[in-house]
Amino acid sequence: MSAVAIDTSALLGYLTGRGGGEVSAVGAVLRGGTAVLPPAVVVEALSIPGLPPEVADLITTLDRLEPTPGYWERAGALRGHVTARGRRARLAVTLIAQSCIDHDVPLVAADPDFAEFAIYGLRLHA
Length: 126
Known about the structure:
Mean pLDDT: 94
Order of helices and strands: EHHEHHEHHE
Helix content: 40-55%
Strand content: 5-15%
Number of strands: 4
Largest sheet: 4 strands, parallel
Number of helices: 6
Low-confidence stretches: none
Shape: globular
Distance between the termini: 15 Å
Structural class: alpha/beta
């Protein structure tokens, strides 16, 4: 089975027991051993005040999508394309999207802002 990336909000939704399709998908990906985290998700999740140690341990043990050569330049161009269309492109969302695009890995996301990146190659996990 191929790798599937998880966004911070979807991961936290799963860990806090929130409902929703993306939460079920996170559970399936974690149980299947195919979960990977973009580096920006690692930073976002580990910076949450009061994060339980067992959650931090989970985050640090999951595989990561390491940046590839030219990542920062492609992320900058990607953000520019999205904002040029008058759309919202938060920096963390852009970095997560670019990681997934570079590695051709689908993303489980609870944040609707990721949809803006689909026309640029981001695959959202159903």
